[in-house]
Write a structure and sequence with these properties.
The chain is of the alpha/beta class and 381 residues long. The protein has 10 helices and 14 strands. A 7-stranded mixed beta sheet has the order 2-3-1-4-7-6-5. It has a 7-stranded mixed beta sheet with strand order 10-9-8-11-12-14-13, with helices on one face. Helix 2 (43-52) packs across helix 7 (234-246), helix 3 (71-79) packs parallel to helix 4 and helix 5 packs across helix 6 (204-213).
Length: 381
Amino acid sequence: MSAYALFATCPRGLEAVLAAELERCGARSVKAASGGVACAGDLALCYRANLESRIATRVLLELGRARYRNEQEVYEAACGVRWQDWFEPERSIRVDVTAIRSPLKSLDFITLKIKDAVCDRFRAERGRRPDVDTRSPQVRIAAFLDAREVTLYLDTSGEPLYKRGYRGDAGEAPLKENLAAGILALSGWRPEEPFLDPMCGSGTLAIEAAMIALGIAPGSRRRFGFERFTAHDAPLWQRLLRAARERERHTRATRIYASDVSGRELAMAKKNIASARLEHAIHLSKANVLEVSPPAPHGVLIANPPYGVRLGEDMDLAEFYPRLGDALKQRFSGWRCYLFSADANLPRLIHLKAARRTPLFNGPLECRLYEYRMVAGVMGA
């Protein structure tokens, strides 16, 4: 099989765990970069990364790279790619451009020039050009510009990979599925350990944990952009998909617990858990995080504390965080506790000593994952 250059994007801060994940998928020449991981592999790796990666946002297939100095040279680079070898002109397209330190002033104009180049190449080769659909394109084209080079990609994923297909309404502050999976990876949680999310919201952390425990490939219930490519190898894809589904362990007992004080949030979590067909794998209950008891002597607790909306009018964050710290010290001795938050006041108010602080990004929002190792008789050490 041919070797391809791939770039898997991810939330910033998760590059190292994504690199390890891609290596397990069989990727070669793996190299982490800001916002993603470059690697090499065959078509099977491309398919497997889409199917099995819990952390990637998109898997991009590199089709061209060239130096540039102006917009015309970007157009010529895009015109030099044999797009017609990858998809038919009947497919609608969308072009997305990102840049770091590019000397060109308008990304919108660059996007237009690349779109023109793709259409002009099709018109020259096939006598027809694809339509542009910015809302629901059948084929997505991506370009990345640094100070000197433009790199052109086909997006093999289509919809972003965090769209597993199980989540409907995500609530007021959604934690994307791949970010939740990345937080689980950073915590070092293993399926044999008890897991608790005591502020579960829409249930994303617990669902991702259950999918890991049961060996469910995150992409096994959805479609991908590569299925629309002319070069799509349907028999290979079906073999990989069938093998992934055969590895699922639906009868495995799990110790995954989720709770929330809000009836609305619990109803949302219950709906999402049912949509993921994981009712048997997650113990869901109504409880106040300040009163919840640990389900086991040891385990991993991960929570994404709310920004006051679900705390009620009688308690603000200045009161809530110290009480949360006290509850963790008093009840969760022997547990590794992780709090994910964009609130800069959390470490000062919770009165616990963080063993580790990992910078992460939830979209454009800079956050921290705080690790607290709860030891009996020690104040959050």
